């Protein structure tokens, strides 16, 4: 082999290594996840596990779904519905939780919408009227203006919707229960290790803390409506409590609470 052939072979081998390296880099680059949510999608499963070791949530009187047509409100295919487990009791860890409902009416069709919260002795804790978003969908109602709810106490809430100015007809209404819970020390430590919103959703769901899980996940869905992982999590969480008919409904946003 003369010197010219040796240099040709050497340069050809070097070019091959560079080419293979570029291909490998390109493939690795394409394989990288595009967001922290997708990064952990294979490791995290969002499944709601109802916690009821003492039977306290069984048999709670409630009305998760309203009637399809009542009073002066127009008929709808899917009625007013509370996003809450079938036990009619949803727990949370915050002092001021956010509750979620599916409202099938346009704001122009409703004259008055009322929310009330009572303790177990039927004493009013918080009461307000609110205005709906322009389009039907899943809405949130924050209790940030209510008094801080006490740990291990149950409260009953009502949502009433009127479609006539005089309130002569019975409203469409739903009702359910909420309870603020305290995390045991070992669970509090686990929550501290949940560094991403999706990890917190999984933690709350696995421990049966419904409203905390739902609110964290709804925030993700609002921020990333086209994210397939988030949409799958949303579908899974709602199906776990028998609300699969709400999976495809839009999240319309927060209701506007009236100032007192």
Structure, explained:
By secondary structure, this protein is α+β, with helices and mostly antiparallel strands. The protein has a single domain (55-257), classed as Immunoglobulins (Immunoglobulin-like, Sandwich). 30% of the residues lie in helices and 22% in strands. It is built from 6 helices and 10 strands. It has helices spanning 3-31, 36-39, 185-192, 197-206, 210-223, 228-240, and strands at residues 81-82, 89-92, 98-103, 112-118, 124-131, 137-142, 154-162, 172-180, 251-254, 256-257. The chain has a 6-stranded mixed β-sheet, with helices on one face. Strands 1-3-6-9 form a 4-stranded mixed β-sheet, with helices on one face. α4 runs antiparallel to α5 and α5 (210-223) runs antiparallel to α6 (228-240). The N and C termini lie far apart (95 Å). 28% of the residues are buried. Mean pLDDT is 84; it is low at 5-11 and 13-39.
Q: Provide the gyration radius in Å.
A: 26 Å
The largest beta-sheet arranges its strands as 2-8-7-4-5-10
Write the CATH architecture name.
Sandwich
Low-confidence stretches: 5-11, 13-39
Share in β-strands? 15-25%
Question: What spatial form do the alpha-carbon principal axes imply?
Answer: globular
Number of strands: 10
Topology order in helix (H) and strand (E) letters: HHEEEEEEEEHHHHEE
* Count, helices: 6
> CATH topology, anyone?
Immunoglobulin-like
Structure classification? alpha+beta
CATH superfamily: Immunoglobulins
CATH class category label? Mainly Beta
Query: Any idea how many domains?
Result: 1
Which terms summarize this structure?
DUF928 domain-containing protein, alpha+beta, DUF928, six-stranded mixed β-sheet, 260 residues, Immunoglobulin-like
């Amino acid at each position: 082999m003369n010197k010219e052939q040796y240099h040709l072979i050497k340069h050809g081998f070097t070019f091959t290594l560079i080419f293979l390296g570029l291909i490998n880099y390109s493939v690795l680059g394409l394989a990288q996840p595009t967001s922290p949510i997708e990064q952990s999608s294979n490791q995290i499963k969002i499944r709601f596990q109802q916690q009821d070791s003492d039977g306290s949530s069984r048999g709670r009187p409630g009305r998760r779904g309203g009637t399809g047509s009542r009073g002066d409100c127009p008929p709808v295919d899917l009625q007013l519905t509370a996003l809450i487990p079938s036990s009619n009791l949803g727990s949370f860890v915050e002092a001021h939780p956010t509750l979620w409902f599916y409202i099938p009416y346009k704001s122009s069709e409703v004259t008055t919408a009322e929310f009330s919260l009572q303790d177990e002795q039927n004493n009013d804790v918080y009461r307000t009227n609110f205005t709906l978003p322009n389009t039907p969908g899943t809405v949130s109602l924050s209790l940030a203006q209510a008094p801080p709810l006490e740990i291990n106490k149950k409260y009953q809430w009502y949502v009433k919707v009127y479609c006539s100015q005089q309130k002569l007809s019975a409203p469409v209404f739903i009702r359910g229960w909420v309870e603020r819970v305290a995390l045991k020390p070992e669970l509090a430590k686990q929550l501290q290790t949940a560094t991403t919103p999706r990890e917190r959703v999984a933690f709350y769901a696995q421990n049966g803390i419904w409203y905390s899980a739902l609110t964290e996940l709804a925030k993700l869905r609002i921020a990333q409506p086209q994210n397939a992982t988030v949409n799958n999590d949303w579908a899974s969480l709602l199906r776990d409590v028998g609300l699969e008919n709400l999976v495809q409904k839009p999240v319309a946003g927060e209701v506007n609470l009236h100032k007192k």
